[in-house]
Design goal:
The complex is a heterodimer of chains A (761) and B (159).
Chain A lengths: L3 H5 L11 H6 L27 H13 L16 E10 L3 E5 L7 E2 L6 E9 L5 E8 L11 E6 L6 E2 L4 H6 L4 E5 L5 E6 L2 E6 L6 E4 L4 E3 L5 E5 L5 E5 L6 E2 L7 E8 L5 E8 L2 E8 L6 E7 L8 E2 L5 E8 L4 E8 L6 E2 L7 E7 L6 E6 L13 E5 L7 E2 L11 E7 L17 E7 L6 E7 L2 E7 L10 E7 L4 E8 L12 E4 L2 E8 L10 E7 L6 E7 L2 E8 L2 E7 L6 E7 L4 E8 L3 E7 L3 E7 L10 E7 L5 E6 L8 E5 L2 E5 L2 E6 L4 E2 L4 E2 L9 E4 L2 E6 L10 E5 L6 E3 L7 H5 L2 E7 L2 E6 L3 E6 L6
Antiparallel strand pairs in A: 1-2, 1-28, 2-3, 4-5, 5-6, 6-7, 8-9, 9-10, 10-11, 12-13, 13-14, 14-15, 16-17, 17-18, 18-19, 20-21, 21-22, 22-23, 24-25, 25-26, 26-27, 29-57, 30-31, 31-32, 32-33, 34-35, 35-36, 36-37, 38-39, 39-40, 40-41, 42-43, 43-44, 44-45, 46-47, 47-48, 48-49, 48-50, 51-52, 52-53, ...
Chain B lengths: L11 H23 L2 H18 L6 H18 L16 H10 L4 H12 L4 H8 L3 H23 L1
Classes of the chains: A mainly beta (761), B mainly alpha (159).
């Protein structure tokens, strides 16, 4: 007899033991606790390289002899259109200030006063964050100059130290002069023993060169620096593939390389004794060109290419007047023009405006002349030919070489742009436990940390209540446990947690222990990432489902009471007040994706006998929350995850389809997954949607990390690695991405950090 | 089909009702899936204990419990090599159930889960898809492969 259904009835005779009384009394996870966690694979990436003594001495000696530090490259030359935002500078009180280019809204960034010095601000290519370096008043070494690289939001909130580690504190090493990669995913910085590249969240710092300062190529694939023999080199972002571009003649020093906007040439200064010259060379080291002999003029800052690469602007200290001025010179050689011939003022530190029409610079009428240009400058702007000079600040106490100009990307209206696919070698960098099996619910990134919503963890709000775990990407461990009363349910597919407006937002259902369920309601909690302080924002209804954010505010999806199934709640993050509530004609709404174009709610319904549409999409206006459309999907049941990413909102079914946000209709079948659909998670990350497809243990050889290109739909399956077995073993339920890092949250309570950094091209 | 009913637990009392009506079937399905009554008992207890904690937050507690119980059981299974001796609890299993459990263990886990949920628990494919976190189309593939393999195994045993 081979009737399977019949044969399986054998199990009907098993005697089930009713354990309800125990279950009701026992806290969850009591049985799971005795299960041994899957082998924890932990790669220590923080291994501190021993500095080569001779090399270190060389850097230090060069550092002391430099007249100034190398400047950050001007903002991203990516194809996206940018406009000019705020100007940031290191000013009075050792803090970073921002100001509008017309002088309005001079702002001392909050939090910055905790620093003895906060300097070297650089804006992220998307203009939302500022990286800088400095050291705090409450430093571990008595306020000594233990510099670290920090990140903050442009309003000064969410300051995070990206480079401190215990070993770093004891060795008093310094990390300085961060520079953003053009795609905003990485930071290049100077350590005591060389140049490092790390993810923008501070994770995975990798030494790339024995050099003091360097600069990104416009495509982000390489870094130029002055290296051995005081010559110019380039190196891949992973520290491999070093190319020597120049051979500095004995006694000379090639310094401060600067990439042309098109990436084809590199300008640099060659100095010998008291004499200086500006050169350029092809990025492959050919065609050395003398742009201009500068004679006794001292230089120190990087020469900055104009947007059309036709001229180069630099600072110079003229002899014998001993005054700093700004100069420009045609990049193919020619006469040097003094842009600021002011007899009683120093000018320095020019940066191009993001739109390329102006220069910002620092001017001091107290002629400090060659004394490190500290503390007596104000910020000015002018046209690139030196005309139309405007004073932006008065008595700002600015440093002469720490000005940055915020790029404000103009929103793309057409197809999403994606960084050209590079060659990736995704690897598991760390795998660690953060909570009990089945009790970690959602994950997101923000303010330099990774955030996990969980419940019933030690240090949380109680055995039946929630906690927000802050994970330090530098240590791969839970750094802080913040009790929250309500926590999201992974029923919503890892939602219920978002980083927006400088805060972490967690939604869930709040009910006092022991109180009747009729008293349950949706509770939104706003957590300050710096202090861990929690503001509870009750939203009414019956329970909190998901939360998302766009430029018009915070959007919460809650289940309703009575005749209202569910509601979309719009909240003003400035006041935490509810702006509007829209009833949703939904059966079982699960996910909410807010973008600048629309709010999309994913709604599940189980049709009788499993026949018919299972998922509907409700689309709401992005600023008013008014319902635009409600439409069932034809996608098969068990599918239908809504995801935001790459300038659009998508639904993942048998393929990945862009949603037409006017009609609420997916645009066709979308990009097919080609056999292996995502399992557990699909997340927009570095240059594509990343997911894991599991062809099966006995199938095609194991687990495949896959990347779907959102422009072409091309799917790349990466070679199975033993490391990826733990993706399946940890039963990844959701994921978050930050820069080149993918963070997976497993049902088993683990977090897996996957490095997606492209390999050098 | 009983699983089509949208159950909305409003308090622990309702979860207790859900336990009385569903736990025996869920437990037996988990025994069939894991081959081990202890794994099944732990998974059922864990799923209900977690459901109690979540209180009103669960909007589809029945489906949620099935899903979590299978996830818990799968997590335990993967920590155990397939060749591992059966646990003590299996000695109390009737012979025909023990035989079926032995045959099912020779199926890959996903095929086994799909077969058990479909042929034993009578859960519609779209809901199996949700419990296992895979697409309904993939459920169909697992089912057809699992069915073919299990029939081969049964025929070989019966000969």
């Amino acid at each position: 007899m081979t009737d399977i259904r019949e044969r399986l009835r054998a199990f009907d005779h098993l005697q089930f033991e009713d354990r309800w009384a125990q279950i009701e009394r026992q806290p969850a996870n009591s049985s799971a606790a005795r299960q041994s966690p899957s082998p924890i694979r932990r790669v220590l990436t923080a291994a501190v390289a021993l500095a080569v003594a001779i090399a270190s001495l060389l850097y230090l000696s060069e550092a002391f002899h430099r007249t100034k530090t190398t400047r950050g490259h001007s903002p991203s030359p990516q194809a996206t259109v940018v406009s000019n935002g705020l100007i940031a500078f290191s000013g009075r009180n050792g803090v970073i200030w921002t100001v509008e280019p017309d002088g309005r809204h001079l702002t001392e960034l909050s939090g910055a006063p905790t620093f003895v010095q906060a300097i070297g601000p650089v804006f992220s290519p998307d203009g939302t964050q500022i990286a800088f370096y400095g050291y705090p008043k409450t430093g571990p070494v008595g306020g000594g100059a233990n510099y670290d690289v920090y990140m903050m939001n442009v309003d000064g909130s969410g300051i995070v130290n990206l480079t401190t580690s215990p070993s770093d504190i004891s060795s008093r090493s310094s990390q300085t002069t961060p520079q953003w990669s053009p795609d905003g995913t990485n930071l290049l910085y100077s350590g005591d023993d060389g140049l490092y590249v790390m993810n923008a969240d501070g994770s995975q710092a990798t030494k790339v060169a024995d050099a003091y300062s360097g600069v990104w190529s416009p495509d982000g694939s390489r870094i130029a620096y002055t290296g051995k023999g005081r010559s110019i080199y380039t190196v891949g972002v992973d520290g491999t593939n070093v190319t020597q571009l120049t051979q500095a003649p004995t006694g000379t020093w090639d310094q401060t390389p600067s990439w042309s906007r098109d990436g084809s040439r590199i300008a640099f200064f060659r100095s010998v004794d008291q004499s200086n010259a500006l050169y350029s060379v092809n990025a492959d080291g050919t065609e050395l060109l003398l742009i201009s002999k500068l004679g006794e003029m001292q230089t120190g800052y990087t020469a900055l290419w104009s947007p059309d690469d036709k001229t180069v602007v630099f600072d110079g200290l003229e002899k014998p007047s001993n005054q700093w001025d700004l100069f420009s010179v045609p990049s193919d050689g020619g006469d040097v023009t003094n842009l600021t011939s002011t007899p009683n003022a120093d000018e320095s530190g020019a940066v191009w405006s993001p739109d390329g029409t102006q220069l910002a610079f620092a001017r001091s009428t107290v002629v400090a002349s060659n004394v490190d240009n500290t503390g007596s400058f104000d910020v000015y702007t002018m046209k690139p030919d030196g005309s139309d000079v405007h004073r932006v600040t008065t008595d700002a106490g600015a440093r002469g070489y720490d000005t940055a100009w915020q790029p404000v990307p103009v929103e793309a209206t057409d197809a999403p742009t994606v960084v050209a696919p590079a060659s990736f070698h995704p690897t598991i960098a760390a795998h660690f436990n953060v909570g009990p099996r089945g009790q970690t619910e959602a994950i997101t990134t923000g303010a330099g940390s990774v955030w996990v919503a969980a419940y019933g963890v030690q240090g949380g709000a109680g055995v039946d209540q929630g906690a927000l775990l802050r994970i330090d990407p530098a240590t791969d461990a839970v750094a802080q446990t913040i009790p929250v009363r309500a926590f999201p349910s992974f029923e919503t597919g890892g939602g219920g947690l978002v980083f927006a407006d400088g805060s972490v937002w967690v939604i869930g259902t709040d009910r006092a222990p022991g109180s009747p369920v009729s008293q349950a309601h949706a509770l939104l909690q706003r957590v300050d990432p710096a202090t861990g302080q929690v503001q509870a924002i009750p939203l009414g209804g019956h329970g909190g489902i998901d939360v998302s954010a766009n430029s018009s505010g915070i959007w919460a999806l809650i289940s309703g009471t009575g005749t209202i199934h569910a509601e979309l709640v719009h909240l003003d993050p400035a006041t935490n007040l509810v702006l509007s509530r829209t009833p949703i004609p939904a059966a079982q709404p699960r996910r909410l994706v807010a973008s600048s174009d629309a709010i999309v709610v994913e709604d599940h319904e189980w049709p009788p006998n499993g026949v018919g549409p299972c998922v509907s999409l409700e689309v709401f206006d992005a600023s008013t929350g008014v319902l635009r459309s409600s439409r069932p999907l034809t996608t098969p049941c068990g599918y239908g995850t809504v995801i935001g990413g790459f300038g659009a909102t998508w639904v993942s079914g048998e393929g990945l389809s862009k949603i037409d946000l006017t009609t609420g209709e997916p645009e066709g079948v979308g990009f097919p997954y080609g056999g292996h659909a995502p399992r557990g998670f699909i997340v927009p990350a570095n240059s594509g949607f990343w997911y894991a497809a599991y062809p099966g243990r006995n199938g095609n050889g194991g687990d495949l990390p896959s990347r779907l290109d959102p422009v072409t739909g091309d799917i790349t399956n990466y070679s199975p690695t033993t490391g990826f077995l733990s993706l399946r073993d940890s039963q990844a339920i959701t994921a978050a991405a930050s820069g080149n890092t993918l963070w997976l949250l497993g049902f088993d309570g683990t977090v897996t950090r996957i490095d997606l950094r492209p390999s050098s091209v | 089909v009983e699983h089509d009913a949208l159950v909305s637990a409003k308090d622990v009392g309702e979860l207790e009702g859900l336990y009385r009506s569903h736990a025996p079937k869920l437990w037996r399905a988990l025994v069939a899936y894991s081959g081990d009554p202890e794994i099944a008992s732990d998974a059922v207890a864990e799923a209900f204990a977690q459901a109690i904690r979540r209180g009103g937050a669960l909007r589809e507690p029945e489906r949620w419990i099935w899903k979590v119980a299978f996830l818990v059981a799968a997590g335990t299974l993967k920590d155990r090599p397939r060749e591992l001796e059966l646990s003590e609890g299996t000695y109390e299993m009737p012979e025909d159930a023990l035989l079926m459990a032995g045959l099912l263990r020779r199926l890959p886990t996903k095929q086994r889960a799909a077969v058990v949920l479909h042929y034993y628990a009578d859960i519609p494919n779209p809901q199996i898809a949700q419990i296992l976190g895979i697409s309904a189309a993939t459920v169909r593939v697992h089912l057809s492969q699992g069915r073919r393999r299990l029939k081969q195994l049964l025929e070989a045993t019966d000969d």
